[in-house]
Amino acid sequence: HYTKIIKHHKIYLRGPFMKSNIFVFFFLVTSSVSAHLSDTHTTVQDMKQILAVFNKAREWDTTNTPKDLSMALAIEASELMEVFLRMTDMESKQVMDSKEAKIKEEAADVLIYLLCLCNSVGLDISKAVEEKIVVNAKKYPVEKCKGKRVKYTEL
Most buried one in 64, 96, 128, 142, CB count within 10 A? Predict the structure, then answer.
């Protein structure tokens, strides 16, 4: 069954990924069937590959430009921010009690568009995060910024 889906959508996969449980998920997303992913068992690369297949099956991979993906990402981020609009800091810390479904939906949209953008431009987001953490560690040394919420230029 999976082979037919691969051939039907002209999706070609290779490497160790083929042996993982995520491989099965690839084919479930093309037929609207659910599977189970979790942070403890799913890598960034797994999610990027899942989204690539999901988009290819719908022929969105050729129409989703970096410009459009970046705009969609900003829109989804603002929808996530809207959940917290007019809340106090304390209320925002307890928001999962009342708005969990909306936060899940909007946070997933943000990550989906970010990963699709990374796929579109060939960005290794894990490497980019690593590089940014190194830059931030220099800008915000622990001894100068611990417990402070100010920009590095104000330390």
Answer: 64
